[in-house]
Amino acid sequence: MSRTQILRATAFALAISTWVSAQTLTVNGSTSHANLPLDPSVTHALVLTGPAGVPFHWIADQDPGPSTVGPVTLPVGITPATIDVGMGMPFPATGTAQVSLTIGDLALVGQTFYSVGVFLDPSGVLVSNGVSLTFVLPGADAGPDAATFVDQAVTLDGSAMLNAAGVIPTGTNPTWAVTSAPGGAAPQLQNAQGAFPVFSTDTAGSYTVELQTLGPNGLATDQATVEVYDVQFASATDGSFVSGSVTLDGTIDGPSFSSFAVNGGAASTVGNAFAAGTLTPVGIMNPITASISTTSGQVIERTITVINGVSAPVGSLGVPGTALRMNGPALDAIEPPVEAALAQLPLNTLFTAVPTIPLIPTGAFTANLTFTGASFDPTTVDFDLFPSNCAIGVAITLNTLSITADITGTQLFGGAYSETATITADSVVISGDMIIGTNAQGEAEITLQNTSASFVNFNMQVTGILGLFIGLIEPLVETALATAFESALLVIPSALNPLLAGLALSVDLSASGIPMVVDLPINSVCYDADGLTLANDFQATPTQTSPSAPAITDYLTTTGSVPTFGPTTAINGVAYDFALGIDDELMNQSLAALTIAGALDLDLSDLGGSPLTAGALALTLPGAGFDAFPASTPVTLRVRQTIAPAVVFAATGDAASLLVGNQRLIFLAEPAAGVQVPVLEAGITASAALTISIDPTVGALTITPGAATVSPTSGGTIAGANPTAALGGLNAIVTQVLPLITQPLSGIPLPFTGASGGVVEVSVPGASPSMLITWLDLP
């Protein structure tokens, strides 16, 4: 079969088949482009992977294409000069085909070839990625020119000196140096003896970086220009809070440029000052991006983010932070522990310890009463809670009361006397107001106020002369007994305080790896006709300050209030027993404290269990510059916050969202052990729906972000890279990063009671839009 026939057969197959991009073609490890020095001592490798045994065509041509055949577009031209390595033969059983090139013909200098692999698989035509290769003179190649901002590093691309194994040939000895710079500048070069030096400086202007190498033709040199700009916004800073329109103005310093825009709109410049109108904030996170197109065709961007909302100082008391509600059965669960404690009430000991009561203290006739015993029916003790002007009214009922006493004194005409008394009552009701507060240790604690006791069918019998005065002394004894019985209320705090351990918290989370102290002091307690509401304030304090942390002083706050709970849930009107709500104060102050502490900064060598390598990222983020490195080069993803993320709840329903503003994703390749060079830096404005669940049994909080919606900007790339296409691939990466950002929030303890039940609703009440509430039905 002739070459023309093969090409026609391939074109026909492409026209009737489905295109599936699943195969890989590399040249010297690159999946997009490589410069090949015309050095006869250097071997270059082109490697194609694909399905074994399938007829394949490996096409190469100097025509860049694209070629459109039916619905399929190939990244190479098909011309009479096209070279086909595969010729329709079965692909090797190893699944890999390799072409090795050792070329020294200088006539090929500057010529570029384009190549692609095509597989005629029974399931459809499989097409690899396209690659291009350019033949260059042997010797120094400093790579493309670069552009960056003051104090932002940029990597120069000396990959042309690498051999097929991705290493610098022995004896090449590259040396990079800054040979020209603006006056007063202090440029720095890291990895100056490697293929990828890292340039940074403190002054805007144009710089020349020279590369010297030793090769077969002796000493060779090449130069790259680095254009450095400084953009400063005058009316806004990164992370500032705004409540109205923002003026887009400032200064731009550096070399000349082709165009300058802010948020996509052309900016006018006078001298080094620029103006670009105003920004009307929409939503919470509002990025402002300055975009510079250099005269060499490069595009660099600098982004800040302003926050549309109200702020509060980090460490201030968020009011409220949580709200806990107990209705009917949930409140009933409080009563048995108290009733059990009251059944063991040592009434006999309690009364015999009461000092002698002088019923008639002075005069010709005296009477002093000393209690000798007391009892009640422990099987019928009753403890009740009831509303009392929003406080918690408590009542203890002790039935079948029997008390004995000795009465001694002096008679009217001298001489001592002694007799006994028996006091009975059908019941005594001891009542008061139970106040739940916070002690000096930040723990919940019960105290009692407005205590009193009253008897039903109080009766007193004496055995002697005092019977003549019973009408006088009985009220005195009843009053004394009431005072003594009020001390029985002290059983309530001792019985309930252990149960309140989870209602007010002060916890240092450092031992759990979360550098933050959280405090949830009690704000208020209100008992109404339907149940009990307990609200906690919230405060988060970082236990450390990360050296790389932004200067955050405030966090996003909302005007919240304690929800008004009724007998049914807020949205669906379903009866419930128990509810626990968290305010966005808790989320946002925690995120700010964690940002200050550096707990949200990440250095990742893998995502989802898959290692990050230059080869994998060259496919995920095409054009970002990863193809300059051997495919196996390890990459670290550095995640840094420039402002604190925020959580917002929907006005109604159960929706919650995580908002990220100007988060920096910095991809660092490691071309040599211990050497990291930046390849791509992106600024991320993103949002993701949150699934939030609360376990009130133990006060556990679980937060799971969904897929991210990402608006990325390019903060910088390796020299010559074009990140435009790459930025779209960041969505999947950010979606995997966000759960790592919210993970520390799951360590925040919440008020809890130990009660368990089934969730009947998760919602944000319209009247309390800053609080997400989980409603439960107890079994």
Task: Quickly describe the structure.
With 779 residues, the chain is mainly beta. The longest helix is centred in the middle third of the chain and has 17 residues, at 470-486.
Q: Which regions have little confidence, pLDDT < 50, spanning 5+ residues? A: 1-21
Q: What would the CATH topology of the domain at 325-499 be?
A: Bactericidal permeability-increasing protein, domain 1
**Rg value:** 40 Å
Q: State the separation between the terminal residues, measured CA to CA.
A: 79 Å
Quick one: overall form?
A: elongated
Sheet of most strands: 9 strands, mixed
CATH class of the domain at 325-499: Alpha Beta
CATH architecture of the domain at 325-499: Super Roll
Helix content: 10-25%
Mean pLDDT: 86
Approximate strand percentage = over 45%
Question: How is this structure best described in words?
Answer:
The chain has about 775 residues and is mainly beta. Among the domains are: about 5-135, Immunoglobulin-like (Sandwich), CATH 2.60.40.10; about 145-230, Immunoglobulin-like (Sandwich), CATH 2.60.40; about 235-310, Immunoglobulins (Immunoglobulin-like, Sandwich), CATH 2.60.40.10; about 325-500, Bactericidal permeability-increasing protein, domain 1 (Super Roll), CATH 3.15.10. The chain is built from ten helices and 51 strands. The two termini are about 80 Å apart. Residues about 1-20 have low confidence and may be disordered.
